[in-house]
Each structure stands twice: as C-alpha cells, then as structure tokens.
Amino acid sequence: MQDELRYRVRHELFLRPDQMTFTFRNKIDQSALPIRSWGAFMPPNGVGGGGVHWNAEMWRFLPSDFVLKTHLTERYGKDFLPKDMTIQDWGITYDELEPHYDRFEYLCGTSGTAGNLNGKIQQGGNPFEGPRSRPYPTPAQGPAVQPHFVRQGRARTRLQAVSSAVRQSLAGLYKSARPANGTVHLLRLLRVVRLQQLFQSQSADHDSSLPDPQTEFSARDNSEVIKINVDRSGRHATGVTFVDTSGEEWEQPADLVILSAFSLFNVQLLLHSKIGVPYDAAANTGVIGRNYTHQTVSTVNGFFDRKKFNFNPFIASGAIGMCIDEFNGDNFDHGPHGFVGGGYLGQVQTGARPIESTLTPPGTPKWGAAWKSAVRDNYLSTVKPGAGVHGSSYAYRDVYLGLDPPTRTASGVR
C-alpha cells in the first residue's frame, strides 16, 4: 500500500460524511444518529466503487444458501428459526448459477484447487463447496507462512483447510487480454486479487471489466445519480437524472437502466424514484429496503516466541491465506446449539501495512522507546489482523434500510 495513512486510516477512497450522511440506530424506537467514523463500514467513492479498495475476495455461495429458508426448515423444523428472522429462498439455485460462476472465474483467471468436480470430491480442495463443472483455469500455489501455520493446526484437529494463490499472465483468455495480476482461492472462496503496485502498471478489477475498446461507450465521473426516471405508466425506466460537480441537474435518456451500485445506494435510488413498495417494519409490508444484512467479522492477533517463529508478514498478496470451512453456513449440525449460521475460520496475509502491522502485546506503552522495542521484537513473530472468523449475517424483521428525512446529501438529496 503506497500510503496507508491516507487510504486505509483516513479513508481517502471512501465517501466522506460531507458528501453522504448515513444514520444508524440499534432499535426501531430510537432516533437515528449520523455515522461519523466509517470503521469497517466503508462505502466506496469514485469510479469502480468498492473495487478500488477490495482485497478481492469473492466466495461461491454454498448450495444451501440459495434455498436457505427451505433447507433450514426441513433440517431443523419450522420452530427452530427465530420468529423475527426473515430469510428467504433466492428463487434460483446453485446449479442454475454455476455456469456464471465458472464463466467469471475463467474471465478473471482465478486460481485454486477444485474440491468438488461434478459431484466427485477432490483431494486438496474444499469438500464443502458446491459441484464445479470444471477445474480452475490456473493452478494453486502454496500458502505463505502464517496460513501454513493454520494448515498445521488443522492437521492436528482433523479439520479441512485449503489454500492457494497464483501470479501469472492469462492473456488470451478473453478478448481484452488483460493480465490477471494475482488470484487466490481459499476453500469455497474465490478471490480475484488485483494488486495496484507502486512501480508496475497493473489493472484493477473494474479496469479489467470495462467494455472492449472497440465498443462505443462513455463514463461520467464526479456525478451523482439522484433519480431513475420512468414513463407515465410507472413501469418502465426511461433514463436517469444526475447532478454534476457544479450542482446542475442533467437528464440522461436510456433504453435500459441497470442498478449496479452498492446496496445502500440502490435502495436509496429506488426510494427516491418511488419504484416499488417501501418496507414498513411495523406493518411487515413492502419490499424496498427489507432484509438488509452486513458483514460479521471477529479477528484476533497472535504473539509467538520470536526465537521459534518467523512469519515474514511482508510476503503476501491482497488476499492469500488459509481457511477452515467446517463451521461455515450449515456445514455442521446446529441442532444441539440452538442457532443457525456459521462462518469460516482462517488467516489471511495481506502484506505488512506499516501502521496496521506494528502490533505489540498487551501492556505495551503507546509510544516511546519501550513501544519501539516491542514493535521491533514482535514484528516477524506476530500473526497480524486477518486471523479470525467471517460469519453469517441473516435477515431480521427490524434490520432494514430507509430514508431519514432530516438528513441530506451534498446534492440536497435525503
């Protein structure tokens, strides 16, 4: 990372509160208050959206995820689920989506070791993943030291773990023939790593997805779409209204309008445009804004004997690691535990960001000579952030998105 303070700590790549105000409340009867520090909640800002700060992790969902309500009800009974949980089946199945997963992997040159090929479990892959129609387009590569440490722990506990990474050019796989700079597959995780390095001109994920140069298209940055325009029937989109940097409104006609923004902004646009029925949590009616979910993450730092361990944290990519999938989704019997959902356990080594990787044991002073000594002594033998759990986030009746009348964006939109 060229400037960790600017981009990671001060969130240069993300929306600023003076551009867009999000409010939050823990319960429906509370007054929502503005979020002033994004934390892990990082709405993107700029062309490419979340791709500009994405570590490039993209999972294949488990087959049971697509029929979640039916699957959990059939396995545990309808009374096992909380009454206010509003999970639903997707309406499509894993098998229907698999050809599109496969196409994306070959488009991006994703690497990995298949764990399930056409229903047959493969050695070295993730046995919990859904069936794949063919192997990954590029082979897997061995893990870095920290993830390998997880593999050793897995071997002692008889848990499954798989890790892989690759760095090779895949010119010719698709028409634009851009290089797949770095890719890694972790268990059922498909990671497409696009590393923008300081001295190398390499494409980001949104760069690689632009139309072929021979295709006529235009992109307008520094603009904010504030409304989807519809015809008199209210059933067909005719274009969008957007605001430029001078605050002037423009209308862009279109035969087709695709909502491909972050979920927050898609909901905001639909509500502003009066498309669909807004969700009413009290009445439990409506659709737009309903069933909002977010990331559930828990991490831990590990300090080891520096005379015995050297993890070389600077040797990494955007997302190389080792994950354990036994406790993900419904891969284990939840009956005795009284809850549903799960998460992968693992360690992801993203590189030694200077600020984030200077960890010290509890009780170390925050500054001064003692702090410097602790940083020096623990740098190579510390497992940095990334070791932990990435868990399920299921939909509930009282978790939703809606417009907050008192607040407005920089463009004057609520």
Could you list some keywords that capture this structure?
single chain, 414 residues, 5-stranded antiparallel sheet, 17% helix
| Structural class category | alpha+beta
Radius of gyration based on Cα positions: 23 Å
Order of neighbouring strands in the sheet with most strands: 6-14-15-17-12
> What does the main sheet amount to?
5 strands, antiparallel
Provide structural commentary.
- This protein starts with a helix and ends in a 23-residue tail after the last strand.
- The chain is of the alpha+beta class.
- The protein has helices spanning 4-9, 63-66, 68-76, 94-108, 145-157, 205-208, 263-272, 369-378; strands at residues 23-24, 33-34, 57-59, 116-117, 120-121, 161-162, 182-186, 189-193, 224-230, 237-243, 249-253, 296-299, 302-303, 320-324, 343-349, 382-383, 388-391.
- Strand 7 (182-186) and strand 8 form a beta hairpin.
- The chain has a five-stranded antiparallel β-sheet, with helices on one face. Strands 3-8-7 form a three-stranded antiparallel β-sheet, with no helix packed on it. Strands 9-10-11 form a three-stranded antiparallel β-sheet.
- It has eight helices and 17 strands.
